[in-house]
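Q: Can someone sanity-check these two? First one:
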Amino acid sequence: MLTNHQMQQYEHRGYIFLPACFSKIEAQVMKLEFQRVMATGTDGHQSGLDVLWAPHTKSEIFDELARHPRLLGPSIQLLSSDAYVYRYKLHTKIAFTSELVHWHQDYKRWHDTDGMPSPRITSIAIFLDEITEFNGALTLIPGSHKEGLLSPLERTDVFGAAFEKRRYDVDLETAGRLIEQYGLVQPRGPAGSVLIFDANLVHASGPNMTPWPRDMALLAHNSVENALPPRSNPRPEYKASRTPIPLTSVADDALLRRASTLTIEHV
C-alpha cells in the first residue's frame, strides 16, 4: 500500500516511482515470460516499438502481474474504487532505433477515441530491463496533469497518415510552456522498477541508442466506476476493454512461486 507521502506526491507531481518494486528473481520471471510470449508473434510496430496487446489473455504470469497487490493495491488506493484492466501491452523498444514517442497525454486518446468519462485511471510502466538515459526512458513533465485535458492547436505540420499518427500529440508550443513551468524528470532504475502516473501527465520517450532492446510492460487500471459508455464501432476489446469486471489480487509471492518452474539465474 502507498504511504500518505506517496499519495501526496502522486497528487502533486502526477506520478510515483517505485525502484526495484519487484525483486531481481521476480524481474527475471517476467523477462523470461516476456521473451516467450513475444516469440509467438507481435501485433505490429509503432514508434520504434514491437508491440503485443493483452498479454494477460495469453500468459498466466502476465495475468498475475495485472492482479499483483504491489500494482493493484496502489491503483485501488489512487482510484478509490475497484479496478479492471482497460488496456495492457508488452513492447520492445528496438535496439539502435531513432524513432521516438512524441509528447502526449494518455487520456487524450482514451477520451476522444473510446469515450472514457474521466481520467480516473492509472497508467503503470513495469520495467523488464534496466532503464537508463540511453535506451529510451520515459520522460515526464511533473505536475502537468494539473492542466487537465489539453486541447491541441489545429495541426498544420502534418497531414494524411502522418496526421492520424500524431493527432493526439501535445503541440510543441504547449510542451515548451509546460516544461518551462514544471521542468522535466526521467525515472530510471533496475528491472523490476515500477512507474505509476496520471493519465493526464504529459510524457514522451526518446530513441534507444544502445545495441540492446529495451523491454517494458504497460498496464492501465481503470476504475470500475469509470467504465466506457456504449459507442458505435468501438476499438477491439483487447485494445480498450468495455468489460469492467473488478480484479482480485493474487498472493504477493505469486511470481516467486513461478521461479521454481523456470530456469533462472538466482541472485
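And here is the second, same format, sequence then C-alpha cells:
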Amino acid sequence: MSDPHELADATLYRLLMSHAAQPDALLTLALAGVMSSGRTRPAAYAAPIARLTRDEQQALVGSCFPGLALRWPEVVGEDGDEFNDVVALLKAHATDAGPGSHWLAHAIATACMGANHLWQDMGLPSRDALNALMQQHFTSLKARNAQNMRWKKFLYRELCVQAEILICKSPSCQQCVDEPVCFGAEHGPALVVAVPAPLGL
C-alpha cells in the first residue's frame, strides 16, 4: 500500500483514473485532478483533499475509485483561514445534498489554495469544463456568476459580500480598473491531462 505523497502527480492521477467507476464524469476528473496535485499547494493543503476525515476519504475512494489501495493521510489544517468559508459557501449552493457535493466542495476549496486558475489547479481540461461542473453540482452559485467572473475571484468576492466587505474600487465591475483581471479568457494548459490511462501496477 503506497502513500500518495510518495507518488509523482501524473502517476497518482493515472492510478486514480485506472480505478475510476465513472472515468468520463466531470466529478471524477475534478476529484482525481485535485487529489493528484498536492505537491503544487502549500503544505497545509497538500493532503489529497484537505480537511476530509479519514472515513470520508475512504468513502470517496470506495465510491469513485473502487479497489484503490492507498494510505490517505488525515490533515486537519488550521482554523481561522478562508478554507472552511469556501466549503460552507459551496455547500450552501449544492444542487443535491449527497456526499459527492461534500467531497467536491472540499476539493474546490483545496484547489483554491493553489496558485493557478482554478480549473488548472483542479486538473480540468478547460474553464468550460469547470463551468459545466459548477452547473451540475452548484447550480444556484453558477447562476450568480452570470458575468462569468473567474471562479476563484468569484468565490472570494462572494465571501466578501457575505462579510459586507467592499472590495471593488468602483460601484460596478465594468468601471473598475481591475476588470480585465477578474473577467476574460484564462489561457494555459491544464496541469493534469484528463485522459484515463491504464497503469501497470
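A (reply): Looked at the second one. Residues 4-167 form one domain. DSSP finds ten helices and no strands in the chain.
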